[in-house]
Amino acid sequence: MLGDRTTEATDAAAALEAAMKTGGVVWLGPVDAIAGTSAVPPTTGPVWYVWSGGACYLLTGPGEQVLPGIVHGGRCRVTARNTAGGRAITWTATVEAVDPAGPDWATIAPKLAAGRLNGGDPVAVLPTWPGRLIIFCLRPTGAFDTAETGFPDVSHAAAPLPSPATTAYRMPSDITRRWRRRRALNNNQP
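^ that's the sequence the OP posted. Answer follows.
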């Protein structure tokens, strides 16, 4: 009986490691906050991260990705995708802010700077981060949901986060012309 639990824990840890090494983004859901309010949605949008030493590291702050409800000392659920774009694993993590004066900051900050797609020169931006930005470390607590342990039957689809962004456009006229023509032909057939 004990051997079965050890094997399950090893399999879950291997699934976590594989999913986090291959994924580029994760979705987060606060566990301790009251999710579902306008201030704390039930899940974030896609969040980029760096996986290092068995933990997930995230960068947040002014001008960076927004992580509503994810706070130092709290817990959150992390959902990673698989290579086909579906959910690979969901796990619970403790959230810790990395101290800018500590050794973890010196190790992780350059990895995060190099992983940013729009960050500019990593060497130039690193000195501006301490005191302005926060690096969160998400460490697994050991609670996993994987395909092997069973997914819930309910949908985990989330409504988009509120945004001032809009896409106002008119449908191109050539598309509407073709649509009207096809509709007229279908209506005139016996």
